[in-house]
Amino acid sequence: MAFRMGGGNASSGMGVAEHSVNTFLELQRKKVHRYVIFKIDENKKEVVVEKTGGPAESYDDFTASLPENDCRYAVFDFDFVTAENCQKSKIFFIAWSPSVARIRPKMLYATSKDRFRRELKGVHYEIQATDPTEMDLEILRERAN
């Protein structure tokens, strides 16, 4: 069962599958996923889960899971140790829109991003990336500290 607001055309943004929100909550609250990659299903006119990564997976595993030439949304649970030696975790929302992607998916993901992002309550930081250097692990470290 999915819930949707408004029409499904590109200008109004896509609906959000309930499973997508529930999978995010599993990452946030239960720590059963290190990351979740979402894609827009144009047939269903909603954002759906494409892939999840287990807690032991690395940031390299995550970035390798993103397509080189198509857009995606993703959340990554970043664990780090503060200067005071405290273990912390921050959730990053990443809007992946590679420069080599076709115009239509770029437009679709751009117009649907805010609506989808609002459904993911508890995200700490947001990154818009058009190539891998814009979402380097060092950037996450800087933002989290």
List its salient traits.
ADF-H; 6 strands; 4 helices; ADF/Cofilin; ADF-H domain-containing protein; 145 residues; actin-binding; disordered N terminus; alpha/beta
What does it look like?
This protein has 145 residues and is of the alpha/beta class. It has 4 helices and 6 strands, in the order βαββαββαβα. A 6-stranded mixed sheet has the order 1-3-2-4-5-6. The longest helix has 17 residues, at 103-119. The protein starts with 14 loop residues before the first strand and ends with a helix. The relative contact order is 0.18.
Q: Topology of this protein?
A:
Elements: E1 15-16, H1 18-30, E2 35-41, E3 46-53, H2 59-65, E4 72-81, E5 87-96, H3 103-119, E6 125-129, H4 137-144
Parallel strand pairs: 1-3, 5-6
Antiparallel strand pairs: 2-3, 2-4, 4-5
Major sheet: 6 strands, mixed
Helix fraction, binned, reads 25-40%
What string, H for helix and E for strand, traces the elements in order? Answer: EHEEHEEHEH
Residue windows where pLDDT falls under 50 for at least 5 positions: 1-11
Shape: globular
- Discrete helix count: 4
Please state how the strands of the largest beta sheet are arranged side by side: 1-3-2-4-5-6
Strand content: 25-35%
Oligomer: single chain
**How large is the radius of gyration?**
15 Å
Arithmetic mean pLDDT: 91
Keywords: Actin-binding
Pfam families: Cofilin_ADF
Protein name: ADF-H domain-containing protein
Organism: Stylosanthes scabra
